[in-house]
Structure formats: C-alpha cells, structure tokens
Amino acid sequence: MNEDGAPEASGPDPAEEASGAVETAAFVLGLRARGVRDAAVLGAMERVPREAFAPLAFRDLARRDLALPLPCGQTMTAPSVIATMLAALNPQGARVLEIGTGSGYATALLLRLGCAEVVSLERYATLARNARSRLDALGFGAAMVGLADGCAPPEEAGGFDRILVNGTLRDLPQALIARLNPGGRLIGALAGPAGPRLVAIAQEADGPWRQVRETPLRIGPLTPGLAAIL
Q1: Domain spans of the chain, in order of start
Q2: How far is residue 138's CA from residue 135's CA, in Å, rounded to a whole number?
Q3: How far apart are CA 207 and CA 17, in angstroms?
Q4: How far apart are CA 96 and CA 54, in angstroms?
Q5: Distance separating alpha carbons of residues 54 and 126, to the nearest angstrom
Q6: What are the GO BP annotations of this UniProt entry (predicted)?
Q7: pTM of the predicted model as reported, rounded to 2 decimal places
Q8: Which H or E element spans position 42?
Q9: Residue 153: φ, ψ to 5°
Q10: What are phi and psi of 119, to 5 degrees?
Q11: Taking a C-beta distance cutoff of 8 angstroms, is the pair 77, 220 a contact?
Q12: Model pLDDT for residues 85-126, shown as the tens digit of each residue
C-alpha cells in the first residue's frame, strides 16, 4: 500500500523479462543460422516485437521462422524472408514505398531501420485498418498506410528511393518501376518454375537494370487491384 492507502503498482516481472530476453536472443540467433547477416536488419528484428503484429491465435508462434495466417486469406511472411528482402533493399535514410502492408510488421521494421519516410499500400481495407491501429499503438505512427492498388500507385504519391514488394508477381508492373527515383532500388519476388526468386531492380541513368537472383523466397502471391472483400 502507498501513503494514500492505494495498492502500489507492480513493476515488470523479472522472470518474464528474462524469459522474453532469452526468446528474443534465440529468435535472432535462428535468423543468423538461416543466413541473415545484416547487423542493422537483425537489430531491427530484435527490437520490433513480431508477436505484437501476429493474430492472437498464433502469437505463440511469432518468434519462429514461420509464415502465419492473416485475415482476408493473406499471410504474415516468415521472418527470414523479410530479413533477406530488407537486407537487399538497404532502406536507411530512404523514402520507401511498401506494397502489401499485411500485418504492418515489415512497415515497423522499415521505420526502425531509419527510413526517412514510409508509404505503405494495402489492397484489403481490413488489413490496412488493423495495421494502422497496431503501428499507432507501438509508436510507429510516422508510417503512412493507405488503401490502394500497390501495383498502380496513385500519381500524387510521387517518386521513391526504395520500393519493397511484399509478394510474388509473374512480372513487375512498369507503372511501379517508373516510381523509382534515379539511383533507386526495388526488391520483390518473381514466380518461376522452381518457385519465387528474389528480384532486384535498380533505376540507372540509361534505364532500369534488373537482376533475378537465385535466392529462393517463401512468400505468397501478390494480387493487383483493390480487393472486392474488405
């Protein structure tokens, strides 16, 4: 009891804090074991709690390298895949367009990595609304989340230094590539006979330069257009 006779507020449970620290350390070490070496990306993933973005029914699996179900038939991409894409993107200090907000987890990671600005577009109103709520609650309110067709970004959005495509496409729309500023970079996944592969596009002075890498990505398809199901 305090001097006013009210119960004193209890502080953090040391046992829970220790358990959480051990779990986080194991999560980061697991990513390293899967080939993630970028120190900035690992640091961001250590500090942004994936469980806060996962659906309640799957939060006990959030610190595993698993894709998790989301509403609207979508999925929360596995952490190692997100880490691979973010390392290739190198978004620090950049104005970034994210296609496919999903849970908002990658959006938070982009901000934690020090992006100058993040504009995230989602085709499902439910996902966009839920992501906006999570980001605000966790202190990532600087991200702009909009309901739009990410494959055809609104003209008023302007140009971007980096574009992150959270999903697999048969080909990347020219309307999306055209939004890259000079020297900009786009990272996404292209479907192929052996499954999705990492693709990097750089906007050079003489036009876009494309490289499809051999890195396999376990990432779901990205559907153009606004969703009929909200």
Answers
A1: 14-216
A2: 5
A3: 51
A4: 23
A5: 14
A6: methylation
A7: 0.89
A8: helix 39-47
A9: -60, 145
A10: -115, 115
A11: yes
A12: 999 999 999 999 999 999 999 999 999 999 999 999 999 999
